[in-house]
Amino acid sequence: MIEDNVKKLFSQIPARNPFGEQITLVAAVKTQTPEAINAAISAGVKTIGDNHVQEFRDKYDLICGSPARHFIGHLQTNKIKYLLGKCDLYESVDRLALAEELSQKSLQRGVNSHILLQVNAGNEETKGGFSFEEIEDAYEKVSHMPALTIDGLMAMLPFSDDEKLLRALATHMREIYDKMRTYAPQFKYLSMGMSGDWRLCVDCGSNMIRVGTSIFGPRVYPSPSQNS
Ligand SMILES: *Cc1c(COP(=O)(O)O)cnc(C)c1O
């Protein structure tokens, strides 16, 4: 089932986006068991993305095949220590205080941390990230922080059926990404697109997609009592 889903997904993802860039698939593994994640990896998934530090820690040693590990969820500064040196890309750096703390902790630990700056493309109150207006200034500030490499941008698009709106936001994301690349030549990734909208996002210039449901099926969240 998971193997079939991964194979199907790989057959649907084009080799390159319209900008000629290869597309990286990140399996969004929140709530998934190590068995399910390992099934995805044996079917060809090379990168996994976690939302929760506790899950990242619990499963860390149970994952086979040495995939790249990304963090894609809201990160509290007091939990950075559990990810340091183990997370290959922090995709969800959504505020300056987090960048500052990640920089300091990385410096102390003697590691360099790769990050993406998260953009709240729909300006939604429920989502973190820098607005279109803030992102360039945020880059300027974070680029001076030691022990960090800013590899690009991560976008959270609104959940919406309005394809025109999503296309407009995704296109604008790519425009900002390209503009920033003129002074941030190290940029490699524009992470944008999930199960419902990755095709549209790739069309508009995303080169990294984060897919959960299309690989693992609908998520089953544990009840709060089991979660403690
Ligand atoms: C869960 C999650 C995804 C994947 O969502 P699906 O709709 O299941 O593909 C992508 N990005 C982030 C940040 C997520 O939390």
Structure description:
With 228 residues, the chain is an alpha/beta fold. It has a single domain (2-212), classed as Alanine racemase (TIM Barrel, Alpha-Beta Barrel), CATH 3.20.20. 36% of the residues lie in helices and 18% in strands. The protein has nine helices and eight strands. An eight-stranded parallel β-sheet has the order 7-6-5-4-3-2-1-8. The longest helix is centred in the C-terminal third of the chain and has 19 residues, at 163-181. The model has no long low-confidence stretch (mean pLDDT 96). Pyridoxal-5'-phosphate binds at residues 28, 30, 51, 72-73, 194-196, 210-214. Pyridoxal-5'-phosphate binds next to strand 8 and helix 8.
* C-alpha termini separation: 30 Å
The gyration radius over C-alpha positions equals 17 Å
User: From the coordinates shown, what is the CATH architecture?
Assistant: Alpha-Beta Barrel
Oligomer: single chain
Structural class: alpha/beta
Order of helices and strands: HEHEHEEHEHEHEHEHH
Corresponding CATH superfamily? Alanine racemase
CATH topology category name: TIM Barrel
Number of helices: 9
Output the strand order for the largest sheet.
Answer: 7-6-5-4-3-2-1-8
**Shape label:** globular
* Low-confidence residue ranges: none
Q: Quickly name the level 1 CATH class.
A: Alpha Beta
Concise description?
An eight-stranded parallel sheet has the order 7-6-5-4-3-2-1-8. The longest helix is centred in the last third of the chain and has 19 residues, at 163-181.
